[in-house]
């Protein structure tokens, strides 16, 4: 029994950096923007390429784990994660950092199914396995929730490179413990690997996200945007068609035809879009507009981190007491109220009110996420639980990646429409300062103090206005989702065996 809990300890140590890296760059975004001279679009790619690549690669990596055994997959994934962390820390520019973050996503996509397979193979007793899965879920939620605070603490004492180098001690510890203490598992040499379909999915998602981000640019050509959008949609539809015909599909598309499962996936995706987008915008608002340090920004966001990471058990009790439909709809509706309140709150003058709204948002979004998980897992027979888990994982990771993309698109469009720059700037400086608040900060570094103050004042006002607009739209989106959930989960029945 000691060996089983030792394996769980190794799994937790491996999962912690994977979870933290999903959100650790949120408070580092302003620092990276200035340090690397990254454009608004490049900054968004740096942040969300990790989740997008992980979402597409986690399916075939699960099959690879079945073929190699979870210990070998875990070790390979941790080694790649460590190497990519070094590459990210040493990246000289935005393009190299994007590439390194993509490799981090590949490593994470190997670690994630390895940890789940490790729990499944190590804990034979159902009760103990549920306890282990609960610990695993708490580590994932807590790591992602506290990622911004971890980033703030590191940036308060070190350069941005340390955000990635901090992974190395944990990587070394996991490799040592896994190599010495985790038993080997026999792999299945007959397990089929279908990386081509997975690559197709990744390219489709990246093409769709690229079309969104390219549309942000003032020099963007709509024909190019539409062509890339059409290419992404074509590849996505082709992926679905191939999966439906495949004898061993990466993703059980048939499950998504079930109303309850589809609703749960949509809830998870949209909730993550809203939560991740909010955290990213909040981190920039607090630093660029309020003048807070990364650590101060992370501390200011602590209520939403605590609320979202600690409400899981309570949300489960609510679902058991009042039912999935009522709790899911209420969670999404309260999220809409939280976004509306934050859209009309002055963070500088009303910090206590902001913390109250953030607490409500954290509790309600986490409840919505857990309800989405319950909807998915309660609607499938036991033999399809793994396939349903794959759908849930993809919804979470795609939501995290798309949240950055959509928040960036809406924010940039609103920012450009609202900004009123002072006279006297060159055309190039005015174009950059009018593109994003991060690029305005870069321009301000090259101006005299009076002109720099005027530029940053104009950028701050435009960003605050745009932030409120985006949060208002998030409130409208969650309100619509609450209505959809209420009606689609009515008389929901589980999938037949």
Topology:
Elements: H1 2-21, H2 29-36, H3 40-68, H4 70-89, H5 94-122, H6 126-157, H7 162-165, H8 167-181, H9 195-214, H10 222-245, H11 259-289, H12 294-300, H13 302-310, H14 312-322, H15 324-343, H16 351-378, H17 385-418, H18 427-433, H19 437-444, H20 449-488
Helix pairs in contact: 1-5, 1-6, 1-8, 2-19, 3-4, 3-5, 3-9, 3-17, 4-5, 4-8, 5-6, 6-12, 6-13, 9-10, 11-12, 11-16, 11-17, 11-20, 13-16, 14-15, 14-16, 15-16, 15-20, 16-17, 17-20, 19-20
Organism: Tenebrionibacter intestinalis
Domain Major facilitator superfamily (MFS) profile: 7-493
Subcellular location: Cell membrane
Task: Name its key features.
3 domains; 497 residues; Growth Hormone, Chain: A; globular
Explain this structure to me?
The structure is a single chain. The protein is an all-alpha fold. The chain has three domains: 1-181, Growth Hormone, Chain: A; 195-247; 258-490, MFS general substrate transporter like domains (Growth Hormone, Chain: A, Up-down Bundle). Helices cover 80% and strands 0% of the residues. The chain contains 20 helices and no strands. The protein has helices spanning 2-21, 29-36, 40-68, 70-89, 94-122, 126-157, 162-165, 167-181, 195-214, 222-245, 259-289, 294-300, 302-310, 312-322, 324-343, 351-378, 385-418, 427-433, 437-444, 449-488. Helix 3 runs antiparallel to helix 17 (385-418).
């Amino acid at each position: 029994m000691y060996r089983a809990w030792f394996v769980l300890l190794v799994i937790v140590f491996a999962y912690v950096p994977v979870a933290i890296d999903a959100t650790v760059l949120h408070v580092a975004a302003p620092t990276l923007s200035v340090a690397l001279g990254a454009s608004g679009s490049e900054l968004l790619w740096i942040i969300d390429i990790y989740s997008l690549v992980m979402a597409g690669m986690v399916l075939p990596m699960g099959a690879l784990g079945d073929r190699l055994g979870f210990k070998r997959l875990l070790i390979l994934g941790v080694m790649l994660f460590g190497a990519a962390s070094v590459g990210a820390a040493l990246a000289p520019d935005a393009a190299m950092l994007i590439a390194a973050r993509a490799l981090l996503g590949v490593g994470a996509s190997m670690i994630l199914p390895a940890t789940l397979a490790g729990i499944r193979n190590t804990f034979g007793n159902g009760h103990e396995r549920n306890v282990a899965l609960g610990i695993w879920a708490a580590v994932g939620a807590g790591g992602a929730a506290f990622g911004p605070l971890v980033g703030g603490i590191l940036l308060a004492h070190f350069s941005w490179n340390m955000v990635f180098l901090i992974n190395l001690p944990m990587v070394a510890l996991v490799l040592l413990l896994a190599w010495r203490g985790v038993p080997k598992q026999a792999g299945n040499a007959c397990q089929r690997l279908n990386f081509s379909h997975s690559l197709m999915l990744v390219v489709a998602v990246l093409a769709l996200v690229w079309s969104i981000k390219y549309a942000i640019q003032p020099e963007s050509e709509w024909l190019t945007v539409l062509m890339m959008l059409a290419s992404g949609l074509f590849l996505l539809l082709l992926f679905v068609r191939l999966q439906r015909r495949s004898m061993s599909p990466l993703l059980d598309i048939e499950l998504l035809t079930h109303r309850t499962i589809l609703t749960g996936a949509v809830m998870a995706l949209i909730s993550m879009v809203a939560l991740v987008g909010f955290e990213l915008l909040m981190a920039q608002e607090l630093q660029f507009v309020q003048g807070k340090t990364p650590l101060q920004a992370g501390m200011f966001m602590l209520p939403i981190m605590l609320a979202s990471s600690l409400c899981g058990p309570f949300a489960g009790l609510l679902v058991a007491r009042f039912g999935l439909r009522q709790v899911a709809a209420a969670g999404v509706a309260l999220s809409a109220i939280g976004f509306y309140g934050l859209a009309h709150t002055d963070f500088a003058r009303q910090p206590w009110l902001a913390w109250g709204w953030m607490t409500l948002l954290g509790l309600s979004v986490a409840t919505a996420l857990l309800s989405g998980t319950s909807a998915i897992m309660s609607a499938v027979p036991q033999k399809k639980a793994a396939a349903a888990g794959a759908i849930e994982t993809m919804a979470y990771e795609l939501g995290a990646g798309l949240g950055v993309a959509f928040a960036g698109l809406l924010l940039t469009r609103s920012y450009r429409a609202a900004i009123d720059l002072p006279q006297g700037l060159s055309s190039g400086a005015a174009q950059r300062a009018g593109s994003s608040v991060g690029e305005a900060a870069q321009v301000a570094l090259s101006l005299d103090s009076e002109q720099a103050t005027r530029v940053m004042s104009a950028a701050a006002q435009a960003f605050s206005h745009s932030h409120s607009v985006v949060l208002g739209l998030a409130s409208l989106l969650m309100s619509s989702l609450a209505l959809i959930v209420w009606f689609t989960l009515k008389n929901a029945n589980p999938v037949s065996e």
